[in-house]
Amino acid sequence: MSLLADLIQQKTTINFLSVLLEYIGTNKNCDEDFIKETLNKAFESKGEHIMYSLVDKWKIDAKKEGKNEGRKEGKTELLSFLFEERFGKVPQQIKKQINKADDKLIEDLARSILKFQSINECYLWLDKNFAKI
Prior knowledge:
By secondary structure, the protein is an all-alpha fold. The chain has one domain.
């Protein structure tokens, strides 16, 4: 870590360290105390600041990821509701495809479900649009 600290200070960038610490942070053997102690040794007084900057970044990333997952989950639930109201129980095959779909495809399918006259039209639409993924 000390060698890495020297290298980073020469380059005057902290991005490399951030990536490395993110990697270390995902290792279950390296807890917060270990990282903080190692940073303090390597970077003297800057270690704690670096650690807290990294933790802030992780929190922001986690929030974004959580919001995106929640948004997608809400859309897939709404889509399932629309399907059930229109055609009855959602078949397992369609559930799997919905879970793989990106936001745009989910929105397109939600609009299309309202226009389908039969469940067969839904299957044809899914076959056509999932072939593009």
